[in-house]
Amino acid sequence: MLDFTRDEIDNLKAEFTINKIVQQPKMWREVLKLYHGLAAQIKTFRAQLQNKTYK
To answer: Structure pTM?
Structure first.
């Protein structure tokens, strides 16, 4: 039988969980939606700074 420490097993579980999450298209669609929302806010903020209308 292979000998693994508790830390090694916990690290393997974490890597497996991360890989499982990363491979879900639904999660990536949500990330992309959040990114586009933030990009729009940043664009508006930059325009306000250029026009000196930011309060």
So the answer is: 0.47
